[in-house]
Amino acid sequence: MAAPRARRRHRLRVLAFLSPWLIGFTVFFAYPLLATVYFSFTRYDLFSLEYVGLTNYRFLLQDEDAWRSMRNTMWLVVVMVPLRVLFGLGTAQLLTQLKAGGNLLRSVIYLPYLVPPVAATVAFVFLLNPGTGPVEQLADGLGIPMPDWFNEPQWSKPGLSLLGLWAVGDVMIILLAALLDVPRQLYEASAIDGAGPWQRFRHITLPTISPVLLFAAVTGVIQTLQYFTQAMVAAKVAAGQADQPGTTTAPGYPDGSTLTFPQWLYDEGFRQFNMGYACVLALLLLAVSMAFTLVLLRQFHAFADEEASG
């Protein structure tokens, strides 16, 4: 009898220590996820609830705005995330080589990331504004043609990518810390063996900082899949629109090119009050986020296995 009681007490102690995590997981993840799945089978407008089965899922297949917003978001994931990681890695590598002025340059690169997203987006759109923006005026003075970044559909997403590169300080600072943590003796030994700069970077730097690169890529993908504020503000500023009491404006100016998936989800849920359909969109966003994360993790493990076998 003593042994079963001891095991029971041990289990209770384990549950007691796990209880903060279990409560948080249940309240903030498990219950909201299950509620989202349940509401996705209903027509729910915050006042009435009606079970409609797979109607919301069938409507998703025919919703052109949802797929347009998903394509825009995928474009940002495929283009902006790699650019931010590569640019952050390049600036971090440059900072490790500077003998003087490195601290000042690091602060200058990191400062735009500290600016609130709304203020940063308004300022960036103003800088690139055709006719009145300082960058446009400087380019005109030098005879360099500049596109109408946030008023032409083909340039709006590249403009948002430039905004992402401008605020690359978060990626730069974690990669800089990783680069500074690479053992110097590995570089010295490889230099003695005759390895060049590219071989040292390929076979020493990359394998050493690969977990940090994976972290930067995964967090970048998740943040970009939730991309909302900058695209919304840039579209409204470029269009000369502002939200005022009693007025609503369709997101995605110009011509839906800046309409991201979270914007469409918000519009369906909190402007159109199609909460059931918004839950379907939320579940799709979760599935895509998980798929990207699994692919990145698999590629990371494949790279690590290749380096270990090599």
Characterization of this structure:
By secondary structure, the chain is mostly helical. It is built from 13 helices and 2 strands. A two-stranded antiparallel ribbon has the order 1-2. Strand 1 and strand 2 form a beta hairpin. Helix 3 runs antiparallel to helix 10. The longest helix has 38 residues. The protein is flat. The protein starts with a helix and ends with a helix. The mean pLDDT is 88.
Question: Helical residue percent?
Answer: over 70%
Main pleated-sheet profile? 2 strands, antiparallel
Low-confidence stretches: none
Average predicted local confidence, pLDDT: 88
Strand-pairing-aware structural class = mainly alpha
What is the approximate shape?
Answer: flat
Quickly count the helices.
13
Beta fraction: under 5%
How many DSSP-defined strands? 2
Radius of gyration from CA coordinates: 25 Å
N-to-C span: 56 Å
Q: Numbering strands along the chain, what is their spatial order in the largest sheet?
A: 1-2
What order do the helices and strands follow?
A: HEEHHHHHHHHHHHH
Topology summary:
Elements: H1 2-39, E1 42-44, E2 49-51, H2 55-62, H3 64-97, H4 102-114, H5 117-127, H6 134-142, H7 153-166, H8 169-180, H9 184-192, H10 197-225, H11 229-239, H12 261-271, H13 275-309
Antiparallel strand pairs: 1-2
